[in-house]
Amino acid sequence: MRILLTNDDGIQAVGLRALHRALVAAGHEVHVVAPVTEQSAVGHAVTLSAPLRVKEFRENGFSGQGVTGTPADCVKLGLSTLVKDRPDVVVSGINAGPNVGVDILYSGTVSAATEGALMGFPALAVSMDDFNPVDLSGQAQYAAELLSRLPLKALPEKCVLNLNFPHRPVGEALGLKVCPHTRAPYEDWFEVRTDPRGRPYYWMCGEIRPERISAGRDRKLLSEGWITLTPLKIDFNDPGTISLLESTLS
Ligand code: MN
Questions:
Q1: pLDDT of 22-70, one tens digit each?
Q2: How confident is the model at residue 117, as a pLDDT?
């Protein structure tokens, strides 16, 4: 397959490099177009106020194009301009940190895949429930193998597949669960710290309250040790509320 590979942790991240190696080893033609700097949690942002620059990265066995923009920028620029032959699939990751539940709204990793889906491509986002991974070769190999078994041609339009690995060696995962995503939002708070000049600054923290995490959905299953695969449909329409508003406002 021909694959556009991107991420939000940056072109030099452990997860992207591991996935690149695994996909190339599996015989795929891989084009990397990824942010030059980390773009975690930028969501679906696009750059309109500045030009995008492209930097070539070539190091033993790796070649890719780094873009001075967001994950969604990379996919737009890659699919429209940089990659000459149409890819079969857009793959994003492997992200350092899980992307489950409402993370899909904040995640640059998932947004890159979403952009691919909006542009008419099958899309897979891959994340790991570990913010400081050292070696993701096992997860990368698993993802590459799974990719070859996914029914990409049978997927509906504007569908994103969201794959997450649990915080344990891939060989010790309980198995793969296809499941819906958690719907509970984060409860955030801000740590107030003091900078070297005595002024306060604020750092966002947050968690989903454990009692709000439903069984059988991605956050819970991932914590239990399952590899989770969640199909996402991009459709914000709400027919029920259209009817309610029409009847209320008419
Ligand atoms: Mn990230």
A1: 999 999 999 999 999 999 999 999 999 999 999 999 998 999 999 999 9
A2: 98
Residue 19 phi, psi (nearest 5): -65, -40
In this structure, is residue 220 part of a structural domain?
Answer: yes
Cα–ligand 1 centroid distance for 112 (angstroms): 11
- Ligand 1 centre distance from Cα of residue 151 (Å): 26
Rounded to the nearest angstrom, the distance between the alpha carbon of 126 and the centre of ligand 1 is 10
Domain with 172, as residue range(s), is: 2-186+214-235
